[in-house]
Every structure is written in structure tokens, then in C-alpha cells.
Design goal:
The protein is of the alpha/beta class. It has a single domain, classed as Nitrilase/N-carbamoyl-D-aminoacid amidohydrolase (4-Layer Sandwich), CATH 3.60.110.10. Helix content is about 35%, strand content about 25%. It has 10 helices and 14 strands. Strands 1, 2, 3, 4, 5, 6, 7, 8, 9, 10, 11, 12, 13 and 14 form a 14-stranded mixed beta sheet that branches. Helix 1 runs parallel beside helix 4. The chain is globular and about 60 Å long. The N and C termini lie far apart (about 55 Å). Keywords: Hydrolase. This is (R)-stereoselective amidase.
Length: about 290
């Protein structure tokens, strides 16, 4: 299959039609290159807050509700595009206010047959906890698709090995991200590459890019698209299948062979995924040695 992952820049939107046209252009471009799976980044939906004006877009709490209120419309657009272009699409994540009160950070996976399901972020960053008060969402899911088994670790989630291990049956783990500084981008990238190593799978990282002075939440963004595998037989020795240019909006593409994933899991030079189970006994043996 061919995968496309986005370095996505936000726009100031004057109308809903402008938003639909933008998404249509992005999806048409990737589908035109033969991509069967498209991955958008974390908090890419925050541009929807601009439709309510600068006072709302620039206010943390009000922007959350403005975006959440438009997500049903946004989901309908994504669902239409997935069907029209016959692709799977991981939509940009958004704060979605739940009936219980506080919002979760949620992304949705759309199938070309009209199917849809969502994945919530599990572990919040300091900004999400201390400033936004975003809440952890529902459990991790494994999506069984015509392209293989797909999991999603939203940004910070990719930095936690046990979350990755919970998705060890996934052929692909998608990592939509939003990082302010270069250090943040590399934390998530290292996490994504580590999960590919441990699970002997492919990870697909999408990034929000560009500066948005109208927003307190997504004002500075650094990153690019990247597609990673285990540095082992059948994959590049660096583990990097493809990477974009830092902070340059656009798609990054890679062809992925599921048989290569199956082969490296069964007979790689190393068998990290299989040998994971040997860790608990070794950890339990840790003793304090005074020198």
C-alpha cells in the first residue's frame, strides 16, 4: 500500500466552504499519488475556531467549544472524501467536549466504505493538563481494516512503551502530532521510531506546522511527516522509510509491504516483539549494588 502523512498548516477560515475546499485539495492530491491511507496531525482541527472570529479563536476555553461544536460537520466532510477518493483517512484531532464535562483529544479513522471510528488520546501533556484541562479519553483500539491492523497513538502517547505494546498486533501505528519546538518534534519522532522497533511494525507520524498568532493553543508548531520501520531486514538500515522537509507543508509518501512486516516479525535479525516477554523476569531481579 502507499501511505501519505501530512505536514499540515492551519489557515484563517472565512467560510465553511473554504474549509471543505482545503480538505478536498489535500485529499485529492494524496489520492492522486495513489495513497490508500492518509494521516492528518493532532489538533489540525483548531483552524475551525477561526470561523467564530478572533476573540473566540484566541481564547483557550472558547476555542475548544467552537471546534467541538463543528466536529459533526467536519466528520461528514471526511466521510464523504474517504468514500469519494476510496481512501482511509485519519482526520486531524480535535478537542471534543463530552457530556461528562471536560473535552477529550479525539481523532477519527474514516473508511472508504463509509465506516468510521475514533481514538482518544490517553495521556495528556502538561499544557493539556494545566492550561487546557483536556481529559484522558476512551481506551486504545485496534482497527481491523482492508489495509491491515491499524492502531493510533496521539502525539505524547507514542512516548510510552506500554501503550505501544498494547497495540503490538498492529501492522501500522499512526502518530498524529502537534509539537511547538524542535525538541518536542524529536521526542515524538523518537517515540514513534521506538514503537516501530519494539513492535517490528511501521509507524506513521504526521505534524502540525507553521505559526498562528491568532491562537494561544497552536501558535507555534514544528515538525514534518515521517514513516518509520524497524532497522532490520526488508527495511532501511536507518529505519526511516520516508521523511519530509522540516516545517514545509505537504505530504510525505511511502510504500509499505505488509509481508515485510510479517517476515521481520517471524525471522528478523532480532526479535524484539517476541522477546518482549522476557523483560518482567529480568526487571524483578534488579538489586542495589553499592560501589
Amino acid at each position: 500500500m502507499k501511505v501519505a502523512t501530512a505536514a499540515y498548516n492551519l489557515d484563517w477560515l472565512e467560510s465553511w466552504a473554504q474549509y471543505e475546499d482545503k480538505l478536498d485539495r489535500w485529499v485529492a492530491q494524496a489520492a492522486g499519488q495513489g495513497a490508500e491511507l492518509l494521516v492528518f496531525p493532532e489538533y489540525g482541527a483548531m483552524e475551525l475556531s477561526t470561523l467564530d472570529g478572533s476573540e473566540v479563536a484566541g481564547d483557550l476555553e472558547r476555542s475548544i467549544h467552537a471546534v467541538s461544536d463543528r466536529m459533526e460537520q467536519a466528520q461528514a466532510v471526511h466521510q464523504r472524501l474517504a468514500q469519494e477518493y476510496k481512501t482511509y483517512i485519519l482526520g486531524a484531532s480535535a478537542p471534543v467536549v463530552k457530556r461528562s464535562g471536560r473535552p477529550v483529544n479525539r481523532t477519527a479513522l474514516y473508511a472508504p466504505d463509509g465506516g468510521r471510528d475514533h481514538q482518544d488520546k490517553q495521556i495528556m501533556t502538561r499544557f493539556e493538563r494545566e492550561d487546557w484541562d483536556i481529559a484522558p479519553g476512551g481506551p486504545l483500539k485496534l482497527f481491523d481494516t482492508a489495509l491491515g491492523k491499524i492502531g493510533v497513538l496521539i502525539c505524547y502517547d507514542s512516548e510510552f512503551p506500554l501503550l505501544g505494546r498494547a497495540l503490538s498486533e498492529a501492522d501500522l501505528i499512526l502518530v498524529p502530532s502537534c509539537t511547538e519546538a524542535l525538541a518536542g518534534y524529536w521526542r515524538v519522532r523518537i517515540g514513534a521510531m521506538s514503537r516501530a522497533l519494539e513492535n517490528q511494525c511501521v509507524t506513521v507520524m504526521a505534524s502540525l506546522v507553521g505559526n498562528n498568532d491568532w491562537s494561544e493553543a497552536v501558535d507555534r508548531n514544528t515538525g514534518t511527516g515521517g514513516i518509520f520501520g524497524p532497522p532490520d531486514k526488508g527495511f532501511p538500515p536507518t529505519g526511516v522509510l520516508a521523511e519530509g522537509t522540516l516545517n514545509q507543508p505537504g505530504w510525505t509518501y511511502a510504500d509499505i509491504d505488509l509481508s515485510a512486516i510479517a517476515e521481520v516479525r517471524a525471522d528478523g535479525h532480532v526479535l524484539n516483539r517476541t522477546h518482549w516477554e522476557e523483560q518482567p523476569a529480568r526487571v524483578d531481579c534488579v538489586t542495589l549494588s553499592r560501589l
